[in-house]
């Protein structure tokens, strides 16, 4: 807080500091009754002790003006903790909360546990350089312990071939803006230090950008080759069905992994996968209803017709086996995970499936970029090549449309479900991957479905 602080004593109750000396001012025998009084004094001391700005010549750079001080803010660590807790209360997905925490960790590392109101524009510039070049895991790896932000950025320049991607910096910018704007709305600061920083512009042309990975018919045949697929999947329901569902729906891996038995519905004689978020009754508490399922956004909520090849492969037979075994999850062996610190669900059913499928693809000789998401890209690419309108593809994939047509249809035209189904069915009829799916036999997974000791809610 000060250039010189002498003889701080505290018995039970108030804190007494006999002398606080700074560049421009000194205080004697200062008594603090609580944390709030200490915070206000520190703000006052910083303002009175600020170094005077020197006049610049025509050839000198302009010095950034200090931000006005607002209502006393608390330390950065406390403000970050409360901000993340607010994110949880607003039902932000646990994974997203973790991403917010990672970005804000850089802010705390740079400034230490000082007052949040003391962060200024120059600090943000230093923080930006740190996030642009920071080595991987620099805040958790013991090798980087005790190093300053400048040292970390320097090491990052030596270790990395290029700075962080523009999309990553856009994410950091968004998180920092939300954090400081929340303090501004709470009157903890009068201005946000992010106000002068524009969001980075995403370049349309990027020579390092990888081609989106989709699958050819030959590659699909390799994946579902019975000589390799059956031995890998025959003891695991999620290994057997999730890739097939991904192939014929274009659904995200998390959407497939988290489905419940009740999410498979028959409407007017046609079967659908209902991609939605429903309450888990065992998680209900005083804070309200909670679900282990997550959705990327409002547009992700949809019904997808179950393609005939899936029905021919015995999916409805498997569905009945699940009901006979009183299973509530489509893939009961996948877990949502639990946060060790908070005890709350991670809502991440896809993690185990992603890892297992990645190993399978690697064993088949596919490159690292060929993941479960390739099924989604394949469906979109094939339908687009066959002239299906983007808006109709989005009815299957749950992509958000950037134009206003989707907003108008949803809020004003009131499109009847029958018309949506018709357009979905027409689109799916044009998608005929050249692959033969293995056929499920009734009772094939009886042993796995009846052994509840390995099931997860």
TrEMBL record:
GO terms for biological process: DNA integration; DNA recombination. It comes from the Bacteria. Residues 210-426 form the Tyr recombinase domain. SUPFAM superfamilies: DNA breaking-rejoining enzymes. It comes from Lysobacter capsici AZ78. This is Integrase. Keywords: DNA integration, DNA recombination, DNA-binding. Belongs to the 'phage' integrase family. Pfam families: Phage_integrase (PF00589). The keyword Amino-acid biosynthesis does not apply. Gene3D superfamilies: 1.10.150.130, Intergrase catalytic core. PANTHER family: PHAGE INTEGRASE-RELATED, PROPHAGE INTEGRASE INTD-RELATED. GO terms for molecular function: DNA binding.
């Amino acid at each position: 807080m000060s250039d010189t602080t002498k003889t701080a004593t505290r018995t039970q109750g108030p804190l007494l500091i006999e002398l606080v000396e700074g560049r421009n001012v000194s205080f004697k025998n200062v008594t603090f009754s609580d944390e709030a009084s200490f915070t206000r004094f520190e703000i006052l001391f910083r303002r009175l002790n600020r170094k005077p700005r020197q006049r610049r010549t025509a050839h000198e750079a302009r010095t950034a003006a200090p931000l006005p001080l607002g209502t006393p803010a608390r330390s950065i660590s406390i403000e970050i903790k409360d901000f993340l807790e607010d994110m949880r209360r607003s039902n932000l997905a646990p994974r997203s909360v973790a991403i917010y925490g990672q970005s804000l960790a850089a802010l705390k590392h740079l400034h230490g546990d000082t007052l949040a109101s003391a962060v200024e524009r120059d600090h943000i510039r230093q923080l930006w350089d740190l996030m642009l070049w920071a080595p991987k895991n620099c805040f958790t790896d013991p090798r980087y312990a005790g190093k300053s932000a400048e040292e970390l950025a320097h090491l990052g320049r030596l270790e990395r071939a290029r700075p962080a991607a523009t999309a990553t910096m856009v994410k950091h910018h968004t998180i920092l803006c939300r954090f400081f704007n929340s303090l501004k709305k709470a009157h903890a600061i009068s201005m946000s230090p992010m106000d002068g920083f524009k969001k980075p512009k995403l370049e349309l042309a990027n020579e390092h950008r990888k081609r989106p990975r989709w699958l050819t018919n030959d590659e699909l045949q390799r994946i579902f080759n019975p000589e390799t697929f059956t031995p890998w999947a025959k003891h695991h329901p999620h290994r057997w069905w999730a890739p097939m569902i991904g192939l014929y729906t274009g659904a995200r891996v998390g959407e497939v992994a988290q489905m419940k038995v009740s999410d498979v519905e028959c409407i007017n004689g046609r079967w659908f996968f209902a991609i939605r978020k429903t309450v888990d009754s065992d998680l209900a508490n005083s804070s309200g209803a909670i679900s282990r399922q997550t959705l990327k956004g409002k547009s992700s909520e949809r019904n997808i017709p179950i393609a005939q090849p899936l029905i021919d492969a015995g999916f409805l037979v498997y569905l009945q086996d699940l009901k006979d075994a009183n299973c509530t999850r489509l893939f009961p062996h996948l877990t949502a995970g639990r946060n060790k610190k908070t005890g709350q669900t991670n809502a991440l059913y896809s993690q185990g499936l992603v890892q297992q499928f990645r190993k399978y693809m690697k064993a088949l000789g596919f490159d690292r970029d060929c993941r479960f998401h390739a099924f989604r890209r394949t469906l979109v690419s094939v339908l687009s090549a066959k002239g299906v309108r983007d808006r109709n593809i989005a009815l299957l994939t749950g992509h958000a449309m950037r134009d206003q047509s989707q907003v108008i249809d949803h809020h004003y035209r009131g499109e009847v479900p029958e018309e949506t189904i018709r357009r979905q069915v027409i689109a799916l009829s044009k998608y005929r991957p050249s692959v033969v799916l293995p056929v499920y036999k009734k009772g094939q997974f009886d042993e796995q479905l009846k052994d509840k000791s390995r099931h997860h809610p």
